[in-house]
C-alpha cells in the first residue's frame, strides 16, 4: 500500500479555513462526525492534520471532547464537517453517546502497532451499530501507518473485518498525512446529500478542549 502523502483528487478539495472556495459548489451540506477509539491511537492528531495541516509529536490527551470544523469540496457539493474528537480514556466512555448521538458519520481509530486498540475499535463499532443513527457512515482508520515496522495488526485482517461490517477502511498516518484527507473525502462522498434543509454555518478551527456541550445537526442539511 502506498505511503505517499494523500491529496485530494480532481474536483475534490479540503478547504483550510472552513469556507467554500471562491467559485466552488453552490450546494452546502453539513454533517456531524465523531471520532472514537482508545486513548493515544492518534484521534486528535488525525483531526489536527485534517483541519490545520499540522502534526505535533507530543499531543496532549483530550479531556471530554474537542470540537472543530472543516470543509470538503466535492465536484457538486461543499460538505462541512462538524467534528467531535472524543477522549479515549475509559473514564470518559459514559460521555461518548452524548457526542455520537445524531452523528451522520464516525471514524473509529486504532493503532496498527497495538492489537488491543484494534479489539477496542471493534467494540466501538458494535456500540455504534447498536446505538447510533441507523444510517451512520462508519469508517475504520488504522493509524500510525508510518510505524509499519512495528505492526501488530495486519492490513488484511482489518480490511476483512471492515468488509464484513460494511465499513470504510484505510490505514492512515497523521505524521506523514497518508490517507488523512482521503478518509474524510471518502466519508463525504458516501453521505447522503439530497435532503432539504438549511445549510449550517459556524466558526472554523475552534478547539474547545473539555467541552461537554452537544450540538444538534440535522441529517444531511443541504441548500
TrEMBL record:
MF annotations from Gene Ontology: G protein activity; GTP binding
Pfam families: Ras
An individual GO BP term: protein transport
InterPro entries referenced in this protein's UniProt entry, alphabetically: P-loop_NTPase, Small_GTP-bd, Small_GTPase
SUPFAM superfamilies assigned: P-loop containing nucleoside triphosphate hydrolases
Keyword set, alphabetical order: Endosome, GTP-binding, Hydrolase, Lipoprotein, Nucleotide-binding, Prenylation, Protein transport, Transport
Ranges annotated as biased composition (Polar residues): 204-223
Compartments where found: Early endosome
Primary location: other
Record field: catalytic activity: GTP + H2O = GDP + phosphate + H(+)
UniProt protein name: small monomeric GTPase
Annotated source species: Hyalella azteca (Amphipod)
Gene giving rise to this polypeptide: LOC108679007
Amino acid at each position: 500500500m502506498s505511503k505517499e502523502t494523500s491529496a485530494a483528487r480532481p474536483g475534490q478539495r479540503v478547504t483550510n479555513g472552513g469556507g467554500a472556495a471562491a467559485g466552488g459548489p453552490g450546494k452546502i451540506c453539513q454533517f456531524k462526525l465523531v471520532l472514537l477509539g482508545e486513548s493515544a491511537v492518534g484521534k486528535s492528531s488525525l483531526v489536527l492534520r485534517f483541519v490545520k495541516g499540522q502534526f505535533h509529536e507530543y499531543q496532549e490527551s483530550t479531556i471530554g471532547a474537542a470540537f472543530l470544523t472543516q470543509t470538503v469540496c466535492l465536484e457538486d457539493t461543499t460538505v462541512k464537517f462538524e467534528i467531535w474528537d472524543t477522549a479515549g480514556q475509559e473514564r470518559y466512555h459514559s460521555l461518548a453517546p452524548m457526542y455520537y448521538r445524531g452523528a451522520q458519520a464516525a471514524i473509529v481509530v486504532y493503532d496498527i502497532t497495538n492489537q488491543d486498540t484494534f479489539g477496542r475499535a471493534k467494540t466501538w463499532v458494535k456500540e455504534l451499530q447498536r446505538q447510533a443513527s441507523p444510517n451512520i457512515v462508519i469508517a475504520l482508520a488504522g493509524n500510525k501507518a508510518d510505524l509499519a515496522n512495528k505492526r501488530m495488526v495486519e492490513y488484511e485482517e482489518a480490511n476483512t473485518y471492515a468488509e464484513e461490517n460494511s465499513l470504510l477502511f484505510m490505514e492512515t498516518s497523521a505524521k506523514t498525512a497518508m490517507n488523512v484527507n482521503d478518509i474524510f473525502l471518502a466519508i463525504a462522498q458516501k453521505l447522503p446529500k439530497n435532503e432539504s434543509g438549511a445549510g449550517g454555518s459556524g466558526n472554523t478551527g475552534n478547539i474547545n478542549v473539555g467541552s461537554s456541550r452537544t450540538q444538534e445537526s440535522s441529517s444531511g442539511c443541504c441548500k
